[in-house]
Design goal:
about 70 residues; alpha+beta
Length: about 70
């Protein structure tokens, strides 16, 4: 079983105001595998991670979000 902790943080970037009209998502992830990493599981993780980043971008959240995901 794989356990991962994904941390998504969104904040306003003053320097990128010309490039981004809205909040720009800054995503961090920390992986906590319980067994050896598998390429398929990692691919699934990053696919979901990208989706969560997009969700964070659309919600314009200013609070930290933690996601605990198991495969």
């Amino acid at each position: 079983m794989y356990y991962y902790k994904i941390f998504i943080y969104t904040r306003w970037l003053e320097n990128d105001r010309k490039q981004y009209l809205n909040h720009h998502p800054i995503c961090f992830s920390s992986f906590i595998p319980q067994v050896n990493e598998n390429s398929v599981k990692i691919l699934q993780l990053f696919s979901l991670f990208t989706t969560l980043c997009a969700i964070s971008y659309q919600n314009y959240s200013t609070q930290s979000k933690y996601f605990h995901i198991s495969f």
